[in-house]
Specification:
Elements: H1 2-27, E1 43-47, H2 52-63, E2 67-72, H3 75-89, E3 94-98, H4 104-116, E4 123-126, H5 144-167, E5 174-179, H6 191-194, H7 203-228, E6 232-238, H8 252-265, H9 269-281, E7 292-294, E8 297-298, H10 308-322
Parallel strand pairs: 1-2, 1-4, 2-3, 4-5, 5-6, 6-7
Antiparallel strand pairs: 7-8
Helix pairs in contact: 1-7, 2-3, 2-9, 4-5, 5-7, 5-10, 7-10
Bound molecules: nicotinamide-adenine-dinucleotide.
Nicotinamide-adenine-dinucleotide binds near residues 74, 101, 181 and 242.
């Protein structure tokens, strides 16, 4: 009981610290959209693009001229989003493909459906996420934060890597962008905890752990890509505290703050998406990977996320659980 309370307080403390920094920034003039060149020749997959930060990311990438695959588990919303993007950015700007990250077989069929389009792939934005979702374990029996936020994206990235490699080249690399969270700072750096094999003290701690797992994964991916000279980079993005449905299952206090003070303390979904869009499209990041980005600048990642032994152990265990092969990066 005390352990659960302590773990939840640590996550709340991070949230409060981030919102205070955001408040100061807002009082000093606010957030500014990144200035980016048009890039009509790029294809991007954005997971969880049916609402929130993912929806804003998809819209903004399409405005830059990219073709966006809206990947999500809400078919109805997905088609609505595609219609909205197409109306704004043209008939070829967006397509919907069903992806349920809570099911490894759905991840595999998503990749088969994407391959059937014969499109190239320059950008993979691992954005979808759940927090305190009461739906229970995933179809494969993983704790939901672990399964949706981390393992689903781990398998997805492994299966899409051949397409990313084939579409990138030296001078214009493909990019894998993984949406993390400042809460990774209080995730417990223990593989059994990160994979839900030993239960987290509370659901918020499981969320924080899934974000730490994503950071460990992304940093190791970048190391492997660099070692092999692959034309792909991997970076981590922290959107800040954003006014989205992510908090739909949070406690009443958090929901009250979001409802009445969200306009002041939280970022809008567009503001929350700016770092993802920057990571996806900025020429300043050409060929650069292994960064943790917040507010379009490099920020500190938890030291444990750079622990090579922890990265390797998590990677091996995640391969075992998902069946990911990673042949393309020599694993
Ligand atoms: N909102 C914040 O304050 C905040 C802070 C830090 C990090 N993030 C991260 O930003 C990302 C986007 O979150 P958001 O704030 O836009 O929340 P959101 O709830 O508005 O959007 C989450 C998206 O993920 C999708 N999703 C959920 N379960 C899925 C599944 N099984 N398969 C496929 N897609 C699924 C949802 O349909 C939705 O499109 C998440 O990774 C979240 O952890 C958000």
């Amino acid at each position: 009981m005390l352990a659960a309370l302590w773990a939840a307080l640590r996550v709340y403390a991070v949230g409060v610290a981030v919102t205070m920094v955001q408040l100061l920034r807002r009082l000093r003039g606010g957030f500014r959209p990144p200035e980016l060149p048009l890039q009509a020749d790029r294809v991007a997959i954005v997971t969880g693009a049916t609402r929130g930060v993912g929806l804003s990311t998809a819209c903004q990438l399409a405005r830059l001229g990219m073709r966006v695959i809206v990947a999500g588990n809400d078919e109805h919303r997905g088609h609505e989003v595609v219609a909205r993007i197409q109306e704004e950015s043209g008939p070829e700007s967006a397509h919907f493909l069903f992806l349920d990250l809570a099911s490894l077989s759905s991840v595999r069929s998503f990749v088969r459906n994407f391959e059937a389009t014969a499109l190239p792939l320059h950008l993979l934005i691992n954005n979808a996420g759940v927090m305190l979702d009461p739906s229970g374990n995933t179809k494969d029996g993983f704790e939901r934060h672990v399964g949706v936020n981390f393992l689903g994206h781990f398998l997805l990235t492994s299966l899409l890597l051949p397409a990313l490699r084939a579409s990138g080249h030296q001078g214009r690399k493909s990019r894998v962008i993984t949406v993390c969270s400042s809460t990774h700072w209080v995730g417990q750096a223990d593989v059994a905890r990160l994979l839900g094999q030993s239960p987290a003290p509370c659901a918020l701690a499981a969320y924080a752990g899934s974000k730490l797992a994503l950071a460990l994964f992304s940093l190791r991916l970048q190391r492997l890509l660099s070692a092999l000279g692959d034309p792909v980079t991997a970076n981590i993005v922290d959107p800040g505290v954003v006014d989205t449905a992510l908090f739909a299952h949070a406690g009443w206090g958090t929901r009250a703050v979001q409802r009445f003070l969200g306009w002041l303390l939280f970022k809008t979904p567009d503001e929350g998406a700016w770092t993802s869009v920057y990571a996806a499209a900025s020429p300043k990041l050409e060929g650069i990977g292994g960064r943790y980005l917040r507010d379009e600048a490099e920020a500190e990642v938890l030291g444990a996320a750079r622990d090579l032994e922890l990265q390797g152990h998590l990677w091996a265990e995640s391969c075992r659980l998902t069946g990911a092969a990673w042949v393309a990066v020599g694993e």
